[in-house]
Amino acid sequence: MIKVGVFGASGRVGKLLIEDLKSTQGMSVSSVYVRNSLDFTIDPSVLVTSDMHTFLNGCDIVIDFSLPEACESLLEEAVKTPRPLVIGTTGLNTHQLNLLKQASEVMPVLYATNMSLGVALLNKLVYQASKTLEGFDIEIVEMHHRHKKDAPSGTALTLSESAAAGRNLDIDKVRVSGRDGNIGERSSDEIAVMALRGGDIVGRHTVGFYNDGEFIELNHTATSRNTFSKGAIRAGKWLADKEAGLYSISDCLELN
Ligand SMILES: NC(=O)C1=CN([C@@H]2O[C@H](COP(=O)(O)OP(=O)(O)OC[C@H]3O[C@@H](n4cnc5c(N)ncnc54)[C@H](OP(=O)(O)O)[C@@H]3O)[C@@H](O)[C@H]2O)C=CC1
Ligand SMILES: O=C(O)C1=N[C@H](C(=O)O)C[C@H](O)C1
């Protein structure tokens, strides 16, 4: 039985993880980290703690859906008490991404901005389309619920990296994330990533390739947040016996 520590347990995805793990063979929740207290009941056998060291000691692997600053604290503590880490938190800054890489030198870490199979495949399709559709303008649009804090979404940023890689471009040089005013004509290499927010949209990503006379749009829509919790559980099961290293969702799904 793999004992799972849930980090971000009171959040939208964290709550689903706890529910989904109840019906997962070979895995169960053993510890949850909370800042204050849980606003729902949980099996009394589960260790509920606001002490990171106690939390890590109470589990075999960790699944994290929290916020960047929380994920940062987790990574700092995990280096002292290594555990396989499935990280789903988005909006990580350069420092936090570096901490993640450092952590992966001493424990297995799977980092995925989107845990769904569909988006994992979409990244491959985008790479291929970007490479093949020479001269087509690439524009990415993401839509999420009104509560989402980071923008553009982690998924949209990963998709933009796949698109840039297909053309051997440096995404940091070509990404545009807003247009307003007299900005002039679009340049050929730019890759736009635009964010829309509203209602309860779980997650929608469209990568468009636009040319004179034709365009193609690749779209993925998550209709249930369980897609992410279940995807993270699948990733955790896969990661549990791996050696230290940084892994992607494509590694887990064998899409490479
Ligand atoms: N990779 C993927 O497939 C997906 C990634 N995500 C990402 O996962 C993250 C969480 O999303 P979601 O569940 O919607 O967010 P929520 O805001 O619903 O949950 C955030 C969780 O993080 C906890 N938290 C916040 N700050 C801290 C802190 N300083 N220390 C400890 N815990 C903290 C919150 O606890 P408290 O209740 O105490 O505030 C809460 O449990 C986001 O980054 C989102 O973009 C979301 C869906 C899919
Ligand atoms: O915050 C969310 O909800 C989601 N976040 C992830 C992201 O930033 O890409 C994944 C998913 O789209 C839902």
Automatic annotation (TrEMBL):
The gene is dapB. It comes from Sulfurimonas marina. One of its GO terms (biological process) is diaminopimelate biosynthetic process. Residues 2-115 form the Dihydrodipicolinate reductase N-terminal domain. Pfam families: DapB_C (PF05173), DapB_N (PF01113). Keywords: Amino-acid biosynthesis, Cytoplasm, Diaminopimelate biosynthesis, Lysine biosynthesis, NAD, NADP, Oxidoreductase. PANTHER family: 4-HYDROXY-TETRAHYDRODIPICOLINATE REDUCTASE 1, CHLOROPLASTIC-RELATED, DIHYDRODIPICOLINATE REDUCTASE. It is found in: Cytoplasm. Residues 118-253 form the Dihydrodipicolinate reductase C-terminal domain. This is 4-hydroxy-tetrahydrodipicolinate reductase. NAD(+) binds at residues 8-13, 88-90, 112-115. One of its GO terms (cellular component) is cytosol. Gene3D superfamilies: Dihydrodipicolinate Reductase, domain 2, NAD(P)-binding Rossmann-like Domain. Belongs to the DapB family. Its main location: cytoplasm. It comes from the Bacteria. One of its GO terms (molecular function) is NADP binding. (S)-2,3,4,5-tetrahydrodipicolinate binds at residues 145, 154-155.
